[in-house]
Amino acid sequence: MINEGDDASIQKYLAWDLTLPWLNDIHDHLWLAGRPMSARSLHRQAMLGRAMVITEQVDLHMVRQDGRIFLKPLPDYLLSYDFWIQALLSSINAESLDLVNKRYHYGELRLARLNWIYRLFSRHTNITTVVRGYMYGYHQYSDILRRNFAWVLITLVYVSTVLAALQVALATETLRTSNAFQQTSYGFAVFSILIPLVTFAVIIVNLLALAFFNVTATVSFKRKTDRARNAAVAVENQQTV
Question: What is the pTM of this model?
């Protein structure tokens, strides 16, 4: 809530709308998510087939994921001459322009890499940041499987190809009598049996852990909401007595 003429409330709103605490927290590692260069122009984004998604979160501005890029429109108040005179010019001077947020040393940032950077290098790491990363973009478990376990299909195809090649090789006279090749084939056959089982176990454990986290977070949020609602009702009842 902004109170007209109240500089404190205006500065508080500007801090909420324009500051980047999450990215500042991992700034030293942003080079892993993007290059220190200007972002591509909007028409170039369209040429690359990216959907431009409007967001009010400044920490998602120029962050891209798959076939989309998030953009925060320039706030109307920054185009107001009166607002600049009233609220901004008094706290800005030419000598402070080098203090522009370091996030803007980079152009586009990749969301997938931001998620991993935030999980590994955030100074506020906890179970929530480990699970959700920078921005949690999954709305159903099928999305998690599609984005994080697509490599499983590639691995299975490769293993199947190698097994087929080994079968053909074992049919030849030279390799059928080779003890070293027999041992290698035996080891790879065992490996190909264990890999799908281990992979399936990892997927199941990940999904169960994520489901447990989501249920726990939901119950915690419900309890917090109920306490706030009960407190509000208690205050209202006291005022009516």
Answer: 0.65
